[in-house]
Design a protein that fits this description.
heterodimer; A: 92 residues; two-stranded antiparallel sheet; B: 266 residues; alpha/beta; Rossmann fold; eight-stranded mixed sheet; binds adenosine-5'-diphosphate; binds magnesium ion
Chain lengths: 92, 266
């Protein structure tokens, strides 16, 4: 009976603790599985930006380098928003 | 005819490695396999009491490695089984007394005479774990349905793969179907989804395990214990049989009796 009440009150207010556990685990494992310390990540980001800047113009502040995972494999993803240069030029 | 080395390990301590070694060892031996269990948890000897063989220890693993006795002298026979032996850990020495290559050599010496060499590994990622992993042909990682235990299992599974001993197979121990049912426990599917490994066993929380270790008599030998059934199923899967995982049933006395009658459920 009390578990029935728990379920009812929970469905209104918060998640069941089992799915809270699952969400927390997923998050903590994303960090655990990428053994790249933040300082190295910063360095990587800076060097990467240096190289990219030689070829295209982009918004430095918006560059994001992070690691995503699927199943047991991880990948390094860099997002580099390009400045829309050609069009700005043609408008001039 | 050459035996297989089965290493039972975990990231977090206290999740059920020793219980699993004692029970899977007994279940394998009960099917006629020749089995030797080795306690690699040096300094924290444990498997001897769980198997009920603590009174007959004279020599231990370190004596064997250091050549102070012959291998056979350190093997304690479990008289309840046709072919089940224990090599106990040293209680007064630490893990540095044994190296990974010592363990590989020992396993090679045992392989001709046994079908299964089951190693009880210490928890964690240190020397003791490396000792237990070095000779492994197959690795079982034990976890519980809790955030910290699953997290640590993930770490260990990664290390097993990095050492080219993978893929590890997962045993989820201390499952409470009633808590899963009401949403208060990670389900088996949640855990498999997160860890991306194969399941080889799902053991319910069961007081018969505590009673069994009080007596030094593994529950795998008790036909009425649901945990015992789950351990016997692991042994069958290790022997290459396909044994279904039935959805955990919430334990009302009716369902547990029904489950037992049908001899499955884990
Ligand atoms: N499925 C279970 N149900 C009830 N108690 C259990 C179960 N599995 C293990 N235990 C108990 O938990 C404790 C730790 O188990 P143990 O096998 O010694 O863990 P480990 O070797 O991983 O440290 C023991 O007291 C054991 O009896
Ligand atoms: Mg132990």
């Amino acid at each position: 009976m009390s578990s029935f009440l728990n379920r009812v009150t929970r469905s209104r207010s918060s998640q069941a603790s089992g799915s809270v556990a699952k969400d927390r685990l997923k998050l903590v494992l994303i960090h655990d599985r990428t053994d790249i310390p933040p300082a190295i990540m910063e360095e990587l980001r800076d060097e990467l930006m240096g190289v990219i800047a030689r070829y295209v113009d982009f918004v430095r502040e918006d560059v994001e380098v992070h690691i995503t995972r699927e199943s047991r494999s991880s990948r390094l993803v860099a997002e580099v928003p390009l400045r829309n240069q050609p069009r700005t030029r043609s408008r001039r | 005819m050459s035996g297989k080395v089965l290493t039972v390990t975990s990231g977090k301590g206290g999740v059920g490695k020793t219980t699993t070694v004692a029970n899977v060892g007994a279940a394998l031996a009960a099917t006629g396999s020749r089995v030797v269990c080795i306690d690699v948890d040096l300094g924290l000897r444990n498997l001897d009491v769980v198997m009920g063989l603590e009174n007959r220890i004279v020599y231990d693993l370190v004596h064997v490695i250091e050549g102070q006795c012959r291998l056979r002298q350190a093997m304690i026979k479990d008289k309840r089984m046709p072919e089940l032996y224990l090599i106990p850990a040293a209680q007064t020495r630490d893990k540095t007394a044994v190296s990974p290559s010592d363990m590989v050599r020992l396993a090679e010496e045992l392989k001709p005479d046994f079908d299964w060499i089951v190693l009880d590994s210490p928890a964690g990622i240190e020397r003791g774990f490396r000792n237990a992993l070095a000779p492994a042909d197959q690795v079982l990682v034990i976890t519980n349905p809790e955030v910290s235990a699953v997290r640590d299992a993930d770490r260990i599974i990664g290390l097993v793969e990095a050492e080219r001993k993978g893929p590890a197979q997962l045993v989820i121990n201390r499952v409470r179907p009633d808590m899963i049912e009401r949403g208060d426990m990670l389900s088996v599917d949640d855990i498999l989804d997160i860890l991306a490994v194969d399941l080889i066993g799902k053991i319910p929380e069961d007081e018969s395990i505590i009673i069994g270790s009080n007596r030094g008599s593994p529950v795998a030998l008790d036909p009425d214990s649901s945990a015992g059934q789950a351990f016997r199923n692991i042994a069958r899967r290790l022997n290459g049989e396909e044994v279904d995982f039935v959805q955990p049933q919430v334990k009302t006395s009716f369902f547990s009796r029904l489950g037992r009658l049908m001899g499955r459920g884990a």
